[in-house]
Design goal:
2 domains, alpha/beta, Isopropylmalate Dehydrogenase, binds ligand LD2JLWAY, 12 strands, 10 helices, binds 1,4-dihydronicotinamide adenine dinucleotide, 12-stranded mixed β-sheet
């Protein structure tokens, strides 16, 4: 155990052809206070100017070097060119991190980005992203994807589905569960005693009284009003005017109706420093907000800021949950 007797973080390598290995290696140097080990092929972490140490036991992880717990992901990392033979190992590394986090050998997990199509093509990965895969591994029906930076927290109520599927996927039960998980996460993991949650409408101008779509008047407004006393939620608000600085001062998190409604504002406000955190799991998981960035993989230009923020957030959450945060 490290100085505070908290287990290290388990970090997954993500897609070897992407910038995951580079940002993980660089993060080791930028966040010396966070103990972590990465699950992956040690060869994929060479060449980034960071000392590495192969370990066979997570308890041996330290902050002296990039500690690597070897995992069977065959072949070299080929920047920008995913290798289908590596897909199964990339997926099983995630499952291994979950097992370590659930067993307490890791205090939390942090995932480097995967390339969803590469995993589907290479290993028939059945999930659209980590979020859904982690929910299945954790045995929970619904989780919440939150992206957080110092200025803004956002939650999409529907996640990795086509835009045309959003209206049917939005249900009263689903939105209520999203609001409850968000509220609980803000209290437990962010230390906000009485969270304020803004809820976006689905349609332009939040439907403008039913003239531009009916979901708001048919059920969203009633649901939000019913839950307001318990969850501190309000809305539905027109999505186009709820993300400017003045509006953000009135809430701790914004629940949006679909992926891009939530992610465009936060990636615009703080692309470098945003963190993706999955709420509602029986373990802690964070991730950088960016993807595999094949266009710059292998160039040395990957910015580790978001990975560093993700590591720090996971470490802080673990501390908060064990009472030492
Ligand atoms: N948590 C995860 O596993 C995530 C995975 N993805 C996946 O990543 C793949 C590529 O997604 P894109 O939409 O292209 O987004 P992306 O985030 O990989 O890249 C978008 C743009 O931002 C740049 N960029 C991204 N991260 C950067 C960094 N750390 N430093 C400097 N520049 C950076 C890229 O070079 C690119 O120009 C897709 O398969 C997507 O599904 C995307 C987001 C999260
Ligand atoms: N756009 C966010 C994203 O793709 C995150 O996906 P994941 O964390 O579920 O893999």
């Amino acid at each position: 155990m490290n100085a505070v007797e908290r287990a290290p973080l388990a970090v997954t390598c993500g897609e070897p052809a992407g910038i995951g290995p580079e940002v993980v290696a660089k993060a080791r140097a930028v966040a010396p206070e966070v103990p972590f080990f990465v699950i992956g092929n040690p060869a994929h972490f060479e060449g980034f100017g960071v000392a590495t140490r192969v370990i066979d036991d997570p308890a041996a992880a330290g902050t002296d070097a990039l500690c690597i717990l070897p995992h069977d992901i065959p072949g070299p990392a080929r920047p920008g060119r995913p290798d289908g033979a590596q897909a199964a190992g990339v997926i099983s590394a995630i499952a291994r991190a979950v097992a370590l986090a659930q067993g307490g050998t890791a205090s939390a997990m942090c995932t480097a980005p995967i390339h969803k199509k590469a995993l589907k093509d290479g290993a028939d990965f059945a999930y659209p992203g980590h979020t859904e895969y982690l929910a299945a591994l954790g045995g929970v029906e619904q989780v919440v994807m939150m992206l957080a930076c110092p200025e803004l927290r956002v939650v999409p109520a529907t996640i990795h589905i086509a835009l045309e599927e959003v209206p049917a996927a939005l249900t009263q039960a689903g939105l209520e569960a999203t609001l409850r998980i968000t509220h609980a996460g803000l209290r437990r993991d962010f230390g906000i005693a009485a969270p304020r949650i803004a809820v976006a409408g689905l349609n332009p101008h939040a439907g403008e009284g039913g003239t531009m779509g009916r979901q708001e008047v048919d059920w969203i407004a009633d649901l939000v009003a019913r839950l307001a006393p318990e969850l501190g939620c309000f809305g539905p608000l027109p999505a186009d005017t709820m993300f400017h600085a003045g509006a953000r001062a009135h809430y701790d998190a914004a629940v949006a109706m679909y992926h891009d409604q939530a992610l465009i504002p936060i990636k615009t406000v703080d692309f470098a420093g945003g963190v993706n955190v999955t709420l509602g799991l029986p373990f802690i998981r964070t991730s950088p907000d960016h993807g595999t960035a094949f266009d710059i993989a292998g160039t040395g230009r990957a910015d580790p800021t978001s990975m560093v923020a993700a590591l720090r957030m996971a470490w802080d959450m673990a501390g908060r949950r064990d009472g030492r945060g």
